[in-house]
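Q: what sequence does this backbone want?
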């Protein structure tokens, strides 16, 4: 019996738990509700997730929002050899540092502010200045990560891991917003997007783009 449900589709944030679940080879039910479609506003969903946002995970008694928290929970609960998992405090702290940087600065402070005051201006208010300033902020933060990656294949060096999953989801998002990507991040993204788990999750998350990746 499948006891795990992943809610959400159609955004870089909803891509993350789907991709992680695919990397781990998990069986789950998918409820592809979309933001601003009214589906996050239903009474059933509000009871489940008062934030009324996607993604959301139910796994037995566990109920979680926040894409980073969901991915880390899945990775730590259902470990798989193909995925980098820190085993000591220092390595975990380094991984946390990278994840917080990507999630806090590139996703929330950068790309989402561009989205709020650009595409979602009808809800959050239009501000060309906020969009322009956030885009140059994203470019600056990506340059830092490009230097961190250097010529390595993965952020944690030895193996694909959670920071790579987060960063590639942000690079997809940045690219869709025409943010220029540093050359090494562009080839890193192209290489990682060949992973079968990414390709499978992409088709689930963006069913309208069948065959794109
Ligand atoms: N930090 C959260 C952000 C979640 C979030 O803002 N999700 C958006 C879609 S990307 C959403 O559900 N918006 C619902 C709405 O505005 O109706 C995460 O990464 O999970």
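A:
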């Amino acid at each position: 019996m499948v006891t795990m449900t992943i809610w959400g589709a159609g955004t870089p944030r909803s891509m993350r738990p789907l991709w992680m679940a695919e990397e781990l080879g998990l069986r789950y039910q998918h409820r592809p509700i979309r933001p601003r479609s009214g589906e996050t506003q239903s009474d059933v969903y509000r009871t489940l997730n008062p934030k009324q946002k996607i993604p959301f995970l139910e796994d037995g008694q566990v109920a979680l929002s926040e894409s980073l928290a969901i991915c880390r929970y899945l990775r730590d609960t259902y470990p798989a050899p193909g995925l980098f998992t820190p085993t000591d405090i220092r390595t975990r702290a380094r991984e946390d540092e990278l994840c917080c940087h990507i999630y806090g600065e590139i996703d929330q402070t950068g790309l989402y502010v561009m989205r709020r005051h650009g595409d979602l201006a009808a809800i959050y208010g239009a501000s060309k200045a906020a969009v322009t300033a956030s885009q140059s902020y994203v470019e600056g933060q990506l340059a830092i990560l490009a230097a961190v990656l250097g010529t390595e294949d993965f952020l944690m060096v030895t193996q694909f891991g959670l920071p790579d999953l987060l960063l590639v989801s942000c690079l997809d998002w940045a690219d869709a917003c025409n943010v220029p990507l540093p050359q090494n991040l562009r080839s890193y993204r192209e290489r990682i997007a060949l992973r079968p788990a990414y390709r499978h999750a992409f088709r689930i998350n963006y069913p309208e783009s069948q065959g794109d990746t």
